[in-house]
Design a protein that fits this description.
This protein has 770 residues and is α+β, with helices and mostly antiparallel strands. It has 34 helices and 15 strands. The radius of gyration is 33 Å and the shape is elongated.
Length: 770
């Protein structure tokens, strides 16, 4: 939009056509208030009222960063008309007026002492004519449109037409509702959008004042302009789902957004997102066009970041939750957003500030209505589990911290769970989740003592609430991590008995089946979960991993592609697609998938697989570069150190570096086994590392122990072939290799495995190779 003429050169131009945004401000109920004031104090009181109104406007203008962003068109007794260079400046000014009025009203109890405004915005041409010695005269239908729109605004609200909305930056567009037809002061109608900048409580009617009152509801967006944080509210007409239909497939990312101005409300957002996610995912079993994807690890800071999160989850909608306190109430806005940030539906739920524990349950029902979900909510599952608001807040903070990437919030989460338990010692789910956090701490820090604390808390959770699914799941996790598999399954069955439709419990059960090489049971259980959540990427990914363990590579590739299709920016599925293509010998496709994964987020697994792809070409300098990257990304991943050693071993003069890498792999794996001593695949890897570091070592006992603990997956068996060949047990190596081929191993997979070159020259190999 063109710049406005400055005051210095206005006198030299008799007339001009300007482009800008007109803002019309009008005080609600001005005539009634003025009559009451005049009856009590005379005309001087009305003059003071007018001065007060202009003070609101002047202060609002003064808060704009550019003092030349506007010009005065006209002052009225109950408001003013201004022309702004840019629509964003007009919006900021309007929000400032409402905020200043709200601040004024918070300190007053009498209805006639309170001030409320309506504001209309219109963008287009305005004609200005300068007459010597007189105030410039302005004319144009843009001014008239803004006046009409002002009359259509609700108390504390803003209405803008299409040109203004189009000129707003993306973040501000998000605040406005969908376009609708509004009525002006007469019979005219306009397509326009509304934004409620502040909540206006019903003002008490004064017998003489006849103050206007309107119903307004909280919408939950916040704008920070010129340092002013503004609370947003929404017209109830916007909440009607029938007026704004959803797409046929509703893949919904649940996000707390935007960030609440009060950081203490982050736990409130977390509780809402968790409750909605935990409950509504059950509807996916009946509605295969629905996918619920909770995201509660961080709050996006912009529309662009919000859309990045949505895309990474494979969602086409966002359900955004935003809380705002107002006096003695807490209002929660739930908005369904379509890309990039178009608001399709909105609904607000409110609870007294001292009854925040009831908010998640209300939010679940509101979200179900917004997303066209019905009949799948259970009040018992949506109750907080404690009567202490402080304990609940600490618990939700812990839940949020536990989901942070790379376990960065793990120890803080443990502290918050402990705080919740200190505040309410009978808080069963807090004990259960603390047990899970301690299991994770034991794995990350290789600290067996953490498992002791995990078991104590899980057992306490079960004793406090024997019907609690999270309690039995936590105890099952403890038993699995301490290699008490039978006990782990017993607890898992109890969890399923108390909540048979819980997809998370079924997924954990399937994971345990896979660990035990009970692949058919794992496949059956994953298939059951997929029937309940057909669009959930993680279950497809896990089922693909089970197929991979059995050398059903084409089926694995199918599931990994399904996972990637459901979550296009998920790195796990892309990395697994690359790994399968490596096994099948399609290096170009493997590298394409792995590079796409690395572009989204570098991971040790993707970098290690990329190193293998370059090693096979061979391009050893690039292979070493990616292998080093893998060890830097995750120093605790022993296969990454193995790949680095294998790369070095193919370069003359690098035997020392290769040996150092194998030794590091051995140390890492040995440390991990101190926590999970009966992990068969890890035991098989340890045997290989020991042979690579000490060719004369006897590792037969380790191999036997590995196989006794379910190291029957094909990758472990090929590792076994490698060990047997390195220990000069050719016949056993050939026998094991024959079994691998019979199960589905590919020649490319086998013949690119290091340490087997001499075996391939044996005529007996060619008799078994498929």
């Amino acid at each position: 939009m063109s710049s406005l003429i400055t005051s210095e050169d206005s006198a030299a131009i008799p007339s001009a056509t300007l482009n800008g945004t007109v803002a019309v401000v009008d005080m609600v109920g001005y005539n009634g208030v003025a009559r009451v004031i005049e009856q009590n104090t005379g005309p001087a009181g009305v003059a003071e009222l007018n001065r007060q109104i202009q003070a609101f406007i002047g202060d609002a203008l003064a808060q704009l960063p550019d003092p030349e962003a506007f010009r005065l068109i006209a002052r009225t007794g109950d408001g003013g008309i201004y022309l702004f260079n840019h629509a964003a400046d007009a919006h900021a000014y309007a929000c400032n007026v409402h905020r200043l009025a709200q601040h004024h009203n918070e300190r007053r109890s009498e209805a006639t002492a309170k001030r409320c405004f309506r504001i209309g915005l219109a963008t287009g041409e305005v004609r200005v004519t300068h007459t010597s010695g007189a105030h410039p005269e302005y004319a144009g239908t843009t001014i008239a449109t803004a006046v009409r729109l002002e009359s259509a605004a609700h108390d504390g609200g803003i209405v803008c037409e299409a040109m203004t909305f189009a000129a707003l930056p993306p973040d501000l567009k998000l605040l406005y509702g969908p376009e609708k037809i509004v009525h002006g002061k007469r019979d005219e109608t306009f397509p326009a959008r509304r934004y409620q900048a502040i909540h206006v409580k019903h003002l008490p009617r004064h017998r003489s004042a006849n103050l206007l009152t309107r119903r307004v509801f909280f919408s939950g967006a916040a704008s920070v302009l010129g340092g002013a944080a503004l609370t947003a509210w929404v017209d109830p007409e916007w909440t009607d789902p029938m007026l704004h239909p959803l797409p046929a497939k509703r893949f919904v990312a649940l996000v707390g957004w935007p960030a609440p101005t009060d950081s203490r409300l982050q736990s409130t957002v977390a509780s809402v997102v968790n409750a909605i996610g935990d409950e509504l995912i059950r509807a996916e079993a009946f509605d295969h066009d629905l996918l619920i994807l909770p995201f509660n690890t961080r709050t996006p800071t912009s529309v662009a970041e919000l859309n990045d999160i949505r895309e990474s989850l494979g969602a086409n909608l966002v359900l955004a939750a935003y809380p705002t306190p107002y006096q003695d109430q807490l209002h929660l806005s739930l908005r369904v957003l379509a890309p990039p940030s178009h608001s399709l539906r909105e609904k607000t739920v409110s609870v007294p500030m001292d009854q925040q524990l009831s908010l998640p349950e209300k939010a679940v029902h509101a979200a179900a209505r917004l997303l066209n979900v019905s009949g799948y909510t259970d009040q018992k599952r949506t109750t907080p589990g404690t009567s202490s608001a402080d304990a609940f807040a600490a618990f939700q903070n812990a839940e949020r911290l536990l989901k942070e990437d790379n376990d960065t919030g793990l120890e803080k989460a443990i502290d918050q769970y402990k705080q919740a338990i200190d505040l309410d010692p009978k808080y069963a789910i807090a004990h259960a989740r603390l047990a899970v956090a301690y299991c994770r701490l034991a794995l990350v820090n290789h600290d067996p003592a953490a498992l002791t604390l995990a078991q104590e808390n899980a057992e306490t959770a079960v004793s406090l609430d024997p019907a609690s699914t999270p309690a039995h799941m936590a105890l099952s996790a403890v038993y699995e991590d301490t290699s008490k598999i039978d006990s782990a399954f017993a607890e898992m069955k109890k969890a399923l008995a108390s909540d048979p439709s819980n997809p998370q419990t079924l997924t954990w059960q399937a994971d345990m089946y896979a660990r035990l090489n009970r692949w058919q049971d794992a496949e059956t259980t994953y298939a059951r979960v997929i029937r309940a959540r057909p669009n959930y990427w993680l279950v497809h990914n896990q089922l693909g991993s089970v197929y991979y363990d059995q050398a059903k590579y084409r089926l694995a590739l199918r599931e990994f592609h399904a996972a990637s299709l459901a979550a296009p920016k998920n790195t796990y599925a892309l990395t697994n697609i690359g790994a399968i293509n490596l096994i099948l010998g399609d290096l170009a496709q493997a590298q394409a998938s792995l590079q796409k994964s690395l572009d989204i987020k570098p991971t040790a697994l993707a970098a290690s697989n990329m190193a293998e792809a370059f090693r096979l070409q061979p391009d050893l300098p690039k292979a070493i570069g990616f292998a080093q990257q893998a060890t830097q990304l995750d120093p605790g991943d022993s296969p990454s150190w193995l790949e680095l050693g294998d790369c070095y071993s193919e370069i003359p003069g690098k035997k020392h570096d290769a040996l150092a890498s194998y030794e590091q792999a051995r140390k890492v794996q040995d440390e991990q086994l101190k926590t999970d001593s009966e992990n068969g695949p890890n035991l098989m890897l340890l045997a290989l590392y020991q042979i690579k570091c000490n060719p004369g070592a006897n590792v037969n006992a380790i191999i036997e122990r590995a196989e006794a603990n379910s190291a029957k997956d094909l990758a472990s068996q090929i590792t076994k072939v490698r060990i047997l060949e390195l220990t000069h047990q050719r016949q056993k190596a050939l026998a094991a290799l024959q079994q691998c081929f019979s199960r589905g191993a590919t020649r490319f997979q086998v013949e690119t495995t290091p340490d087997l070159q001499a075996l391939f020259a044996d005529p007996a190999y060619h008799s078994i190779a498929i």
